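In the design runs reported in the main text, the only information available to the sequence generator was the tokenized backbone. The following block is the verbatim input for one such run; it is reproduced so that readers can re-run the procedure and compare outputs position by position.
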């Protein structure tokens, strides 16, 4: 079970809303989000309703302003609780529809280019656990949640390009 609290103002001030499960539309509960406290679980936050727009991965901790979660604005409109799993396994493919070179990963990778010589990845098959995909190496840039399932092209995970830099297991501890 997870618990996250959204605050309208910085420093955990102003109107707040507590959440413990996925929520496709947070708009009725607050107009802006400038600080967040994650008491338990890992969460993916979205700038738009229905899990759309920029995504931000948060784990247990205090985020006193939106720059702390690398937010581009004070807009958070939906959230997902990421289920805890003990095992993680993902297959990455060089080309769309699971074609080209394939690599299976079970651990975090801070640079897919350095390790596998991939600067673009066009399809994924998530076998176990949830993963956070980062556009740049060293876990930087735009973030995307990959849940178990098939991602045949980069549009399937919400990206505008196949550029991929790093990949991390969605876990509480690092």
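Verbatim output:
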């Amino acid at each position: 079970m997870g618990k996250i609290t959204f605050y309208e103002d910085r420093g955990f001030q102003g109107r707040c809303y507590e959440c413990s499960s996925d929520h496709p539309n947070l708009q009725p509960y607050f107009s802006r989000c400038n600080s967040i406290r994650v008491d338990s679980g890992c969460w993916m936050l979205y700038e738009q309703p229905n899990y759309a727009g920029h995504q931000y991965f948060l784990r247990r901790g205090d985020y006193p302003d939106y720059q702390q979660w690398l937010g581009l604005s004070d807009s958070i409109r939906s959230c997902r609780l990421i289920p805890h799993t003990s095992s993680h396994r993902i297959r990455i493919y060089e080309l769309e529809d699971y074609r080209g070179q394939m690599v299976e990963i079970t651990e975090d990778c801070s640079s897919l280019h350095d390790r596998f010589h991939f600067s673009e990845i066009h399809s994924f098959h998530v076998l176990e656990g949830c993963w956070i995909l980062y556009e740049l190496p060293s876990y930087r840039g735009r973030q995307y949640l990959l849940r178990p399932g098939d991602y045949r092209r980069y549009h399937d995970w919400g990206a505008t390009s196949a550029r991929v830099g790093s990949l991390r297991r969605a876990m509480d501890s690092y």
